[in-house]
Amino acid sequence: MTRRWGIVGLCLLALMGSACRGRDDQAQSRSMLADQVVEVDVLPVAERTFDRQIEIVGTLVADEEVVVSTEVEGQVIEMRVDLGSVVRRGDVLARLESRDFELRLAEAEAAMQQVRARLGLTPDRDRIDPEETAIVRQARAAYEDARLRFQRIRQLHGRGVVSQQELDQADANLRIAEARYESAREEVRSLLAQLEQWRARVAAARRDLEKTVIRAPISGAVAARHASLGEFLRRNDRLLTLVKIDPLRLRADVPERYAGKIALGRRLTFTVDAVPEKTFHGVIVRISPSARSETRSLTIEAEVRNPGGELRPGYFARAQVVIEPGARAVVIPSRAIISSVGMTKVFVLDGDRARERAITVGARVNADVEVIEGLRPGERVIVSNLNRLSEGTRVRVARSR
Length: 401
Known about the structure:
The protein is an alpha+beta fold. It has three domains: 34-51 and 328-400, conserved putative lor/sdh protein from methanococcus maripaludis s2 fold, CATH 2.40.420; 54-63 and 245-325, Elongation Factor Tu (Ef-tu), domain 3, CATH 2.40.30; 98-210. It is 32% helix and 38% strand. It has helices spanning 2-35, 99-119, 134-158, 164-210; strands at residues 37-44, 46-69, 74-79, 86-87, 92-96, 213-215, 220-225, 232-233, 238-255, 267-272, 280-287, 297-304, 316-333, 338-340, 343-350, 353-358, 360-365, 368-373, 380-382, 394-400. Helix 3 runs antiparallel to helix 4. The longest helix has 47 residues, at 164-210. The radius of gyration is 48 Å and the shape is rod-shaped. It starts with a helix and ends with a strand.
């Protein structure tokens, strides 16, 4: 038993010795790190003027979206565009069967020509005075002859040269000629009314015929196709959806705390994942008059020129909006900042040592970051070899600006 306890005691002594050596090694390691000299680059902290920005996210939407529908019914006999096709206003999109409309137009034009012929209208004339028509002129001439004959016979009857019967006959002929004259005038008025009706029918038939050729109402791109070649479409059936892609709108929400700093005409920049290497520009053209209660934000819209068609409706965008042009603040390069475990810090040069300093950051300005709290102008921050630094590490400045 005594021997067993002796062995246990020796084991405990060995473990205690090992732990002491471990602590000595760690202390020695820390001492070596503290004595190690790290070569670093530093930059002076300075206050400068910059455009304070905020970052928002949004979506590109079409400036206009139009559903192209049929205005007359017919079978689709030609489809000139498809999904993604780019069109200009007035371009032909599709054609419907037009034979029935051509027949209706021909019938209406033939009927109109018959009325024109009865009125005696020449091809170069569209209007005529009823008194100038052949129908009225002939009736008027017959009436004038009957009136003059009646006046002559009445004079002769007064001298006893002709009988009462002849006078009565002349009077009857005059009344008949007058009635025919009025009838001719009425007929011409009716023909003129018919002419206007047939003109309207010809114009309507021509419009319907023209509507069998379906044209683009706006310049843009085909976002959806709703009909196929050979399909019979009724009036107001959907054919295509067009979207205007130049310009586009960038629609985004701005936190309400910045509402007073957003203004119409202010410019913004943004990027999209589809073209990551390029920065695009826009101008704020619309601001919602009220905030959305569920997000406590204002909706804005910026107009974005898109002449090359690189951008498409639906793209997700990350945008930067200037909220305070010409602001003054302490700004340092973003590469000087370390963020970990919810803390943002930098290393400040203190003699030949690196000192950790917690900071509060604000807006990002390109490759720089605004420092709201934690640094003063004139101090120098370390911008290289940050992964080799800890509190109190000895450093040697290789480059300072």
